[in-house]
Design a protein that fits this description.
A hairpin with a 2-residue loop joins strand 17 and strand 18. This protein has 8 helices and 20 strands. The strands form 6 sheets. It has a 5-stranded antiparallel β-sheet. It has a 4-stranded mixed β-sheet with strand order 1-2-5-3, with helices on one face. It has 4 domains: 66 residues, Uridine Diphospho-n-acetylenolpyruvylglucosamine Reductase, domain 2 (2-Layer Sandwich), CATH 3.30.43.10; 113 residues, Uridine Diphospho-n-acetylenolpyruvylglucosamine Reductase, domain 3; 31 residues, no CATH class; 103 residues, UDP-N-acetylenolpyruvoylglucosamine reductase, C-terminal domain (Uridine Diphospho-n-acetylenolpyruvylglucosamine Reductase, domain 1, Alpha-Beta Complex). Helices cover 26% and strands 27% of the residues. It is an alpha+beta fold and 339 residues long. The structure holds flavin-adenine dinucleotide (FAD). Flavin-adenine dinucleotide (FAD) binds next to strand 3, strand 8, strand 12 and strand 13. Flavin-adenine dinucleotide binds next to strand 3, strand 8, strand 12 and strand 13.
Length: 339
């Protein structure tokens, strides 16, 4: 039996800790709850918004309609052979617990994505990535439920149209499906991705030449804890902007002017420039504007020092975008979903 509540404060349900309400709110713990919630929304002609851990959203106003908080949990190995295992995580499961489970099973592929906030079900939405790995690298398929018809559909990697911090669920199918579970295909033999510079440097510093899975998890934990603000202490939603991708031509003209500019090759033949560097060069790193600032250790993260409202965050984001455009002639794009 589900319990639809009215006018619920969402402060505890978003990592920016913004005080906004949901017109209607329900927590679902199994597929029956979910189906009942979908039927309720249909009968009452209410739109649906799916909420995971609230770690990639900026709620700028009351959310109209029914907010469905996904707490459908569980994870298991559903198939394996000598080389691979297929592991399924239910959408409401904690992403970090899911990665930890795969590491404990001695499975290779998700270790670089340890300690990313949020739920398994949200991971495909922006094709989460960190330290040289993206979800798409190990993605097998996902099961989703159409919010209009209630029908279940399996999406392959090709169906999801994954790209850098992007998928079909941020575009054509935005808000149309509830991601019920995600299956990843992990290797049973070591195949580490250690190309990302900070990871390589840290392993070398610790004199680890033949790492095991736990070594990688420990190093990632330490790097993340040293660089990223804990939303429990300093509310934030991770990177506010995506890194920018520019053409070879634009890149060359910028490099002439800024020879020290960091960059790396993108999958799609474009050049990726760390937006944190652009923001820092524009003078915003650690600079505080009232209750908000761009984080002192990582300029890409916008933090709420307490009591900020969505308008304070949006105003700073706008200032940063303008300044970066003025200095470099490029446009920053939000990674956080503004609601
Ligand atoms: C400190 C910090 C560090 C971070 N580091 C990284 C990082 O390294 N790499 C990275 O990629 N991200 C990072 N993030 C962003 C965030 O953790 C991820 O985007 C995460 O996948 C969001 O999960 P969530 O459950 O909190 O999603 P939410 O914020 O609840 O939702 C995000 C979007 O997904 C939709 N959604 C959520 N669940 C479902 C579902 N089951 N079905 C359909 N739609 C759904 C929501 O409607 C919303 O549009 C970081 C965030 C923080 C706070």
């Amino acid at each position: 039996m589900i319990k639809i509540k009215e006018n619920i404060d969402l402060t505890p349900f978003n990592t920016f800790r913004l005080k906004q309400a949901a017109e209607f709110f329900v927590i679902v713990k199994n597929v029956q709850d979910l189906r009942a919630a979908i039927i309720w929304a249909k009968e009452n002609k209410q739109p649906i918004f799916i909420l995971g851990g609230g770690s990639n959203i900026l709620i700028s106003q009351k959310i109209k309609g029914l907010v469905i908080k996904n707490e459908i949990k569980g994870m298991e190995i559903i198939d394996k052979n000598d080389d691979y295992a297929l592991v399924e995580g239910k959408g409401g499961e904690s992403w970090t617990k899911f990665v930890n489970f795969t590491v404990n099973q001695g499975l290779y592929g998700l270790e670089n994505l340890f300690l990313i906030y949020g739920t398994v079900g949200a991971a495909p939405i922006q094709n989460i990535g960190a330290y040289g790995v993206e979800l798409k690298d190990v993605f097998y398929h996902l099961k989703a439920i159409n919010l209009k018809t209630g029908h279940e559909k399996i999406f392959s990697a090709a169906d999801c149209l994954f790209a850098y911090r992007d998928s079909i669920f941020k575009n054509k199918l935005k808000g149309k499906y509830f991601i019920y579970s995600v299956v990843v295909k992990l290797s049973r033999k070591p195949n580490f991705k250690l190309t990302y510079a900070p990871l390589k440097t840290e392993l070398a510093k610790r004199k680890i030449t033949e790492p095991c899975l736990r070594d990688i998890v420990n190093v990632i934990t330490d790097i993340r804890n040293s660089k990223l603000p804990n939303p429990g202490v300093l509310p934030n939603a991770g990177s506010y902007f995506k890194n920018i991708e520019i053409s070879e031509r634009k890149f060359k003209s910028l490099l002439k002017k800024y020879p020290e500019m960091p960059y790396f090759q993108s999958d799609n033949k474009k050049i990726k420039i760390p937006s944190g560097w652009l923001i820092e060069q524009a003078g915003f790193k650690g600079k505080r504007f009232g209750k908000v600032s761009m984080y002192e250790k990582q300029a890409l993260i916008l933090v709420n020092h307490g009591g900020a409202q969505a308008k304070d965050i949006l105003a700073l984001a706008e200032k940063v975008k303008k300044a970066v455009n003025k200095k470099f002639g490029v446009d920053l794009v939000e990674e956080v979903r503004v609601i």
